[in-house]
Amino acid sequence: MNKGTLTRWVFRLHSWLGLITGLFLILLGLSGSVLVFRHELDHWANRELLHTPSSDQPFPPDVLSRCYRTIAERYGDLDGIAWLNPGAGSGEAYNFRIYFNDTRLFTYDLALITFDPHTGAILREGPSSAFTPSFIEWLLQFHFSFQLGIPGAALTAVFGITMLLSLMTGLIVYRKMIWKVLCFRVKINRKNWRTLSSDLHRIIGIWTLLLNAVIFFTGFWMNLFAFQPKTWRAETVSTKPNTLMAVSPDDLFQRALQVFPDLRPTYVYLPTQPTRPFEVRGYTDQQWKIWGSSNAVKMDQKNGKVVKLIRWEDKLLGEQLESAFFPLHVGNYGGLPVKILYALLGLTPGLLSITGFLLWWRKTRNRRPNRSKAWLN
């Protein structure tokens, strides 16, 4: 097979990958752009609901325990509970994610419940498969599973691979244009929609190649759990009834902070099954956020003893690199400029899909002799 034939074959593969997955990539890209600002948007959309009256008095000493007991009483047979904003200030509501199991494969079993920490009142509550209590929570679940449970999570991982293949084949097809584009030697020809779509496809594809590759690879990697047989089996087996922790969650949380004083918690796991540990995850003051919430304290829920203390710097190199996958995927490691970049980047899979479709449609309608290499010019 000569070089020209190989290039044409790669171009056909590139085209079909885009055509097959184009719509899904548009949906993943748009939802990803919104989710870059998911915390800010959730607070803005629910600013009155989530803003609790500030009080000069400290929170009740057992506030976490009260929320934990309330959730466990309202929801039986839970896989666990997670406190999502342990860094909340005195005027902020407490958000908890609920992990349940309805024994159905095509539903991803998450719910959200929010409390006023001063009064213990429930401010919002509901499954992540519904637009309420939070459209952002629904969108998050849609983004990683299309609201199709474990099979949906596997499907999004497959699309991550197809996008990577599309990027690699595009790299081969447009390899002669890369340096010209990066040196701004290629201008957008606005003569007609054909030239415009062709130039946009090349320029956008080349400039976003690296970051898009990172985002789609990390998305694939984080959904690898959906290919594990044990994940599918566990999803269809009923969870055992809740067993409350023997030690107060408030006490365990305070002990964890004493054991790891420079930990800035971002996630607290509250077990409802007897074999699972209480866990606090977060950053440290000296740590760049690209390394994620990769520090943790795990504690025995029965006696409060530290089971494991995890620091990022003590991990193996592979584990350290893997801890960066989530921040690299969501863009929460560099402040507002990086978030804006990621939000704009999320629009590019859709633009590439649309311009790629226009290029394919043009070629299928206007096949003429000696035009097989026109798209490379």
Brief overview:
The protein has 377 residues and is of the alpha+beta class.
Keyphrases for this structure?
elongated; 15 helices; 377 residues
Query: What is the SS-derived class?
Result: alpha+beta
Q: What order do the strands of the largest sheet run in, or round the barrel if closed?
A: 4-3-2-1-5-6-7-8
Residue stretches low in confidence (pLDDT < 50, at least 5 long) are: 371-377
Shape: elongated
- N-to-C order of helices and strands: HHHHEEEEHHHHHHHEEEEHHHH
Residue share in β-strands: 5-15%
Q: State the helicity in percent bands.
A: 40-55%
Number of helices: 15
Total of domains: 2
C-alpha Rg (nearest Å): 24 Å
Q: How many beta strands in the DSSP annotation?
A: 8
Alpha carbon gap, first and last residue: 22 Å
Would you tell me the overall average pLDDT? 91
Main sheet properties: 8 strands, antiparallel
Structure description:
The protein is an alpha+beta fold and 377 residues long. It has two domains: 148 residues, no CATH class; 198 residues, no CATH class. 49% of the residues lie in helices and 12% in strands. It has 15 helices and eight strands. It has an eight-stranded antiparallel sheet with strand order 4-3-2-1-5-6-7-8, sandwiched between helices. A hairpin with a 7-residue loop joins strand 5 and strand 6. Helix 1 crosses helix 6 and helix 1 packs antiparallel against helix 15. The C terminus is likely disordered.
